[in-house]
Each structure stands twice: as C-alpha cells, then as structure tokens.
Target: Peptidase M28 domain-containing protein
Amino acid sequence: MINYLYFTGVDDNGAGVAAMLEVVRQLTDRNKNGVKRKNTMIFVAFDLEEYGSCFGTSDCKLPNVPLGSRHFLQEWLPPWLKLNYGNAVPPVIHGVIILDTMMNYNTSARSQTIPPQIENVFEEAFPEAYASVASDNFQGDFLNLIYRQPTNDSYLAAEFLKSWRELGKPKYEIESFPLTFTKFSEIPSSDVKNAFIDFMRSDHGNFWESDLPAIWLTDSADFRGDMIQCYHQECDNLQVMLTDENINFLGKTADAIVTTMHKLSEPSGSGTSDASRCNQQTVLTILTYIIYTNRMQLI
Model:
C-alpha cells in the first residue's frame, strides 16, 4: 500500500501558479489596451510531476519524467498544432519557461546549501555563479536560471536575464547556470549524472529530451532556507512562506517574465513602444507553461 502525504505546497508549487496568473493578468491588461500579438501564448499548469520519478533506480534514464508535461508533449500538443497550423508550414516553438518552487528568499548567511559531495563539481561547472554566491556568504537571495548553453535555451535565457536586470531591485539577485549537455540521457558518466541530477528535477526535462528549448526558474527548493525542512512537508504553508520578501521576490520574477514574453510575442498596436521586433517565434512555459507559436521558420 502506498501512503500519500498531502500538504499545502505554497512554494512548491503554488508560487509557480501564482506567478503564471500574474503574468496572464498583466498581458491581458496590455491586450485590452490595444496590443496585438503575432505569436500565440499557451499557459499550462501540469500535474503528476512526482508520479513519473525514477530517482534512486539503477536504470533511470531521466531523474524525473513528470507525467503531466509528458502527456502534454505527446498527446495534447501535436494535435493542437496540427489543428491550428496544418501540415504545410509547421510552427516553430521558440522556448519554454518552467516555474517551479521559486519564491523562497533568504538573506541569512549559509541559508543556501550545496551538497558537499558535488560542491567541487558545482564550482568547476559554474565558476562565476559559485564565486558570486560564496562572496555573499551563501545567502539564498537569488533566482536560479538554469538552461543548456549549446542550444536555443541560451537565447531565451539571455532575453529573460535582460528583462530581470532592467527591472532594477538589485537586492533580488539572479544567478545563471548554463549546462554543457543537451540531453540528460546522453551524459555518459554516471558520476556526472549524479552531480547534475538536481538540475533536472522539473518539467523542463521532458522538453529538453524532446529537443525543445526551455529554461527553468527556481529558488533551488530543498537546498535553501525554510524549504530545507519544509520541502514536501506541511510547513510549506502560508504561515511560513507568505512573507513580504518572498512575495516581492516572486513579483520581480513575474514582472521579468511579462517583459520577456511581451517582447517575444512580437506585439503591435498601442502600448508597444517598449518592445522590439523579433524574427523568431516563441514558446514560453511556466510550470504553468506558455507557448508562443506562429507560421515563421527559424532561419
């Protein structure tokens, strides 16, 4: 018999859903003011993330295969694309933004942890991020931006990073973690897989394995502050997580997504003076996923 523990899940992943709804609200307000968009945005909230997990098994090709996003990719998206675009000019999916566990903000020293067994690998793989976090005495005061450097993830990550920095509020920091592999299943060494397994713990893994660009935004879940004790526990609740700093941190993330999506949707009409034209089509996703598509091909 399997016993399931039910918990409120304010950070994991009420935070992602709240951010998605705020993004929808802001973009809808712009649309009501006359903005027209060349690309389509699809917002999706996935379930059954944990059910597909194969953590701890010897034949695990992926550390996590969330069933909700896998069903979306295999069963929902293909017929939707065919219905709306047909077979003549297949649409290009520009990118996916995954929001999963991303409102935990902590300025206490050593509130950001790195597992000792991978700290050397972590420092070698991400020297700039490691040095930055270490210089702040490992405060958990930053958003993690995780992507694959050799892919079109980099383009989407750069757009989001630009939007984040343009918002100011420097106390809410961001650190980039560019991965060198394109698919987790292609990493030959089990030691390397073990070192990077925590960079695959969300729905972006399904998109990466399907050769679709995606970035993951997270606060690092059970490696930071209150969530070290509260990850998948009852204390991931309103009383613990709903602080002013956490809300403001989450708000900056939502605002940066709005700016990024507004630009990449190729807007026209009134209220678009802050947006530049983009020759690429877009898909953006948040755990809760957003997709932009149009009839243009990447050149």
